[in-house]
UniProtKB/TrEMBL annotation:
Entries under InterPro entries matching the protein: PAP2/HPO (IPR000326), PAP2/HPO_sf (IPR036938), UPP_Pase (IPR033879)
Pfam families membership: PAP2 (PF01569)
Lineage: Bacteria, Pseudomonadati, Pseudomonadota, Betaproteobacteria, Burkholderiales
Organism: Duganella sacchari
Protein name: Undecaprenyl-diphosphatase
GO molecular function, one term: undecaprenyl-diphosphatase activity
């Protein structure tokens, strides 16, 4: 399996002299697009209905659980990144830690899968899930992940999306009340102006 993983990596990894366009595009997908996650959650919370806010909380729980599971996997099994074994030179800076599963893609797909499982947000969830594909390509292209790291991210993200939705009755209402209280304290002025929902 590791041989296949490395073969696929070499097929998808950037050539020795990548074009400026491909490099710029890959860096955007690998490093910048991830900021769409907090932006989407923030907009959904500030402008959305109560149902949308609860959807965002479940999606957030899915992403956080995914990152926690990844940390546990990384502690239990240190899988080196391509540049750690001399298979490539990374085209973006990255710490030499465990590559499996990809944290970027786990967070991205956990949010996407969570939204796609919930009513009213399915189209957004599917769109986000599809956008995860170029993100996965970019992380491999730039030499910081293997293809199987992305397969692991899909598995962890799907599990977390399902689990956090299934068990929402245990945490959703208390976390919603807490988040609403914090929201009113921080955004009281904007709420009074009508710029942000109460």
């Amino acid at each position: 399996m590791e041989s296949l993983n490395q073969t696929l990596f070499l097929w998808l990894n950037a050539p020795e002299h990548p074009s400026a366009f491909a490099l710029t595009l890959a860096i955007f997908f690998a490093e910048q697009l991830i900021w769409a996650v907090p932006l989407l959650i923030g907009i959904g919370w500030l402008r959305g209905s109560d149902a949308t806010r609860k959807t965002m909380l479940i999606a957030t729980a899915s992403g956080l659980l995914g990152l926690l599971i990844n940390q546990i996997i990384g502690l239990a099994w240190l899988h080196p990144r391509p540049f750690m074994i001399g298979l490539s030179h990374p085209l973006i800076p990255h710490v030499a830690d465990s590559s499996f599963p990809s944290d970027h893609l786990t967070l991205w797909w956990a949010l996407a899968f969570s939204l796609s499982l919930q009513r009213g947000q399915r189209i957004a969830g599917v769109a986000l899930a599809l956008l995860g594909v170029p993100v996965a390509w970019a992380r491999i292209y730039l030499g910081v992940h293997f293809p199987f790291d992305m397969v692991g991210a899909i598995a962890v993200a799907a599990l977390c999306a399902w689990l956090t939705l299934r068990e929402a009755r245990w945490y959703l209402e208390p976390s919603y009340q807490l988040a609403t209280g914090i929201h009113r304290r921080f955004f009281g002025g904007l709420i009074a102006l009508g710029w942000v929902r109460e």
